Amino acid sequence: MPTQRTTAQRARRRNRWGGFVMTPEAAAAWASRLHGQELHPLRNIHTICKVILNQVRPYQLDFMVIGEVWPMDAQYMLITQSAKFEGYRGMDPKEIPQFEEGEREAVA
Q: Of 17 and 24, which is predicted with more confidence?
């Protein structure tokens, strides 16, 4: 019978991010338009990130692949805010402090 892991045994999370989450297909479509050639959502992950990062970095935004089990639940995130955080993987989302929308979200 599986035992429930304590908070101390869970994978720690040291940062939290705020921004906009998008599907691999949406990110690939956006990067494809910017890059001028069709990019596959899974085969071209690194190119997708690089192309979009080049577009958003001048606005002090970040872009990365997120998800618990990669690549099965991989999604992309345009990161507009980040902060240090002492949490753990799988914790109740209600326990995670939320960011308030600000200037960077308006830019994005």
A: 24
